[in-house]
Design goal:
CATH architecture of one domain: Sandwich
Distance between the termini: 37 Å
Radius of gyration: 43 Å
Order of helices and strands: HEEEEEEEEEEEEEEEEHHHEEHEHHHH
Strand content: 25-35%
Structural class: alpha+beta
Oligomer: single chain
CATH topology of one domain: Immunoglobulin-like
Shape: elongated
Number of helices: 9
Length: about 500
């Protein structure tokens, strides 16, 4: 049992450590406290973008920003620059033209990477700190002119982003104001808790909180074509109606999801309320039952008062009588602690010394080996020995030489190893015999022990009920705690084996 318990403890520690390390790992790494986009759309269809990153960094030397290369959405990204914003003065990073996993400090590259993406990467070389970076670039052909409208459709955060963001903000500015605000149409795609609004005839703003890892964020701005008069990225077809239809379908789907979440939340609240009523009703019934039982326990405590000595003594014997054998004394002494089996070597040694005092055996040092002890058995009637002493004496007889009736401690150890099964069988008999002897002497009562264990288990059961009450049955907590206290108090009246008492 002890080995099993130790293994369970080790397994629990390992599991807890893995769980703790996993939580620490999830908490570590990178997190954007604030991500802000300033997008200036130009009349030629290009877009000048400024990204401001306020980011917490833990032991990271390189940061990455990637774009999927898609000629149908834009032509290329140019004019890239990176700088760190500091109170003491901004630091502009030097551009290199080689892809690296670890970019040198204060350097950056902007090129097509080995995965076929356009990638901006810069050396951060920071540990457990918050830094602010500014990335600038120009998107060529970011806007497309159709016959009936112009469209800017850009994905600011992709599903491949591994960095969570506390809050994302952005401003999109048109090269010219639209004459009619109704002609300016805007949409955002991503988390349902975001907002995109038309601030004025030439400015759009968006904001989203708590953007998790692998969550995309897009914005779509549609204007009349005269806003981008110099745009050469043109199409001969019409697009406005298909855009409106597509966005309406997506909006309907988003509303269905949002409404479902609201319904699910409302249903969950109803279930929790009903569950709380049911559980607290059950808890109230159980509390009444427990209170009635506690009153009964209180009466039982009065029937079994705490036993106190009738006279003051500075010293008293724990063992009931002086005739107790070492095994009997050990049984009573170790009963509440480790038990007799865990101290059997001490019991055997003490019994052998006691048998020596009673004249059943003798000890002497071996002449040629001063560190060896020889035990010699005396030819004496063993009928006066107790059962536990008889078991040990018979074990010694089996070890002793038939002619000399003696053996050394080395021979004792050798015999025990060679006949381990029979030796263990005899040793197990010792505890059985002692328990029987103590019950006959009325120093040990199985009924008291069973009653003690029953009350103790009641106390533990009430503790679990109190814990359950804290979770879902508040009315059960106080009665269960009081009942557990009374159960342990009643149990305490039964645990002393050496006291004999009556009602």
């Amino acid at each position: 049992m002890k080995r099993i318990r130790n293994k369970l403890i080790i397994a629990f520690i390992v599991f807890f450590s893995i769980l703790l390390l996993s939580n620490l790992s999830n908490a570590a790494g990178l997190k954007l406290k604030n991500l802000d986009y300033q997008v200036n759309l130009n009349s030629d269809g290009t877009a000048d973008v400024v990204e401001n990153w306020k980011i917490y960094i833990e032991d990271t030397n390189t940061l990455f920003k990637t774009f999927e290369i898609d000629k149908s959405k834009y032509k290329e990204i140019t004019n890239v620059s990176v700088q760190e914003i500091k109170n003491s003065g901004n630091v502009s990073f030097r551009r290199i033209y080689q892809e690296k996993y670890h970019v040198d400090k204060n350097c950056f590259y902007a090129l097509r990477n080995s995965k076929g993406q356009f990638e901006i990467a810069w050396g951060a070389h920071a540990e457990d700190t918050t830094r602010t970076y500014q990335i600038r670039y120009t998107i060529v052909d970011a806007v497309k002119n159709y016959v009936d409208c112009s469209e800017f459709y850009w994905q600011f955060i992709s599903t491949e982003s591994e960095i969570p963001v506390n809050i994302v903000t952005g401003t999109i500015t048109l090269p010219y104001a639209v004459s009619n605000k109704d002609d300016l149409k805007v949409w955002a795609h991503g988390p349902l808790n975001g907002n995109i609004i038309i601030v004025s005839n030439d400015t759009v703003k968006f904001e989203v909180e708590d953007v998790r890892r692998n969550t995309m964020l897009e914005a779509r701005v549609v204007t009349p074509t005269n806003v981008f008069v110099n745009n050469q990225n043109r199409s001969s077809g019409e697009k406005l109606q298909s855009i409106l239809q597509q966005e309406q379908e997506w909006a309907d789907e988003a509303n269905r999801i949002r409404e479902k979440r609201i319904r699910d939340r409302e249903n969950l609240i109803k279930i929790l309320i009903i569950g709380a009523i049911i559980f607290n009703t059950i808890g109230l019934v159980l509390a009444i039952i427990i209170i009635r039982k506690t009153i009964k326990y209180h009466k039982q405590l009065k029937e079994y008062p705490v036993l106190k000595p009738q006279m003051e003594m500075k010293y008293f014997r724990d063992i009931p009588d002086e005739t107790a054998t070492p095994a009997e004394a050990g049984f009573l002494y170790y009963f509440k602690n480790t038990g007799l089996q865990y101290n059997m070597s001490k019991i055997i040694s003490a019994t052998m010394l006691d048998l020596c005092l009673k004249g059943y055996l003798s000890f002497e040092t071996v002449a040629e080996k001063k560190d060896q002890i020889r035990i010699t058995l005396k030819q004496k009637e063993i009928g006066n020995l107790s059962q536990d002493e008889t078991v040990i004496y018979e074990l010694l007889e089996n070890i002793a030489n038939n002619e000399t009736k003696s053996f050394t401690m080395k021979e004792f150890e050798k015999y025990a190893r060679a006949h381990s099964s029979s030796v263990l069988s005899k040793i197990n008999k010792i505890e059985i015999q002692v328990e029987k002897q103590q019950e006959e002497k009325k120093n040990y009562d199985k009924q008291y022990i069973q009653t003690y264990n029953q009350w103790k288990m009641k106390g533990v059961g009430y503790v679990f009920l109190a814990i359950l009450g804290m979770l879902c049955m508040q009315t059960l907590v106080i009665p269960a705690i009081i009942a557990s206290i009374y159960s342990f108090r009643v149990a305490s009246r039964y645990h002393t084996l050496t006291q004999k008492r009556s009602k």
